[in-house]
Fold this protein.
Amino acid sequence: MIYKLRQPDAAKPLFGDWQETILWSCLQGVMGAVYGDDSEKPRSAAALLGDFCFLAGTPNAELSGFLLDQHRTAVKGYSGDAAKERRKPGPAAGSGDCGCKAMRAAAAGREALLLIPQNEAWAQLIGQQYGPAARRMIRYAFLKESSGFDVQSLRRMTAPFSPEEKRGAKPCNEEAPCDEGVAGFVLRPIDSVLYEHLRASGWGRDLVAQYPDADAWKRLGIGVAAIRSADGVAVAGASSYSRYLDGIEIEVDTKKEYRRRGLARACAAQLMLDCLERGLYPSWDAHNLQSARLAEQLGYRMDQPYPAYEVALPVIQQR
């Protein structure tokens, strides 16, 4: 039987000193959820937030299968009642609440789950359980150093996209164009209007996808978008993919036709500056070498590469 833990930190000993902020978000109860094979003293546990699932403790095929099924339910947009019917019999996910509504909001349109094993034993289980449906990939973790950023360098990266006279967060849209930056784009905080725009877009949805509505974004989210000066349309952004008590995990996206113009770097630099001003740590975890190189330009130092498994939906029949 698999349970959603009412007290997520009950699984903290299983995860040890794993330095991943998405995991911390779950254990702290800020975002996401933690599941285990026991509601109070789990031996196997999984922290699930958005597309990420961290697996720890004793390898458990039932647990990894359950979490993938929950993610599939969220992606397909099944109703809460249908999800409950699929879980019968028994109180799987603890109190009968699997968090399906929030998961549907976060996972809508997503067709894969990223399983991150704590050790080789978990990696072997994933391979045995999902076979070729689990694509092994390498991600890159970066050190979390609170005093390692060059603020002046970050400001220089944002300078070409700042108006000559900064007028705060002046709204801009088709009727009221933005103050023009040197490069024809200007940086703006992601407010409720930009939140709705990005959530409805294809390219920028991940920037706000973990926040089910504008109120949740206002409470927990922080982000910066690059806006076309001519018409106020967002074409790039950097934001808090997730939030934990002391910081965020950064998400960066750019509309395809606007890449290689320094927009992503400028948005990320401004987001880092905003976080440092608020006393939040802007954590970076790279999904490929291009992302890793951008992180190093911004002042991050690599910690180590690590394996992850992308399991596509629908999953082939489990072995």
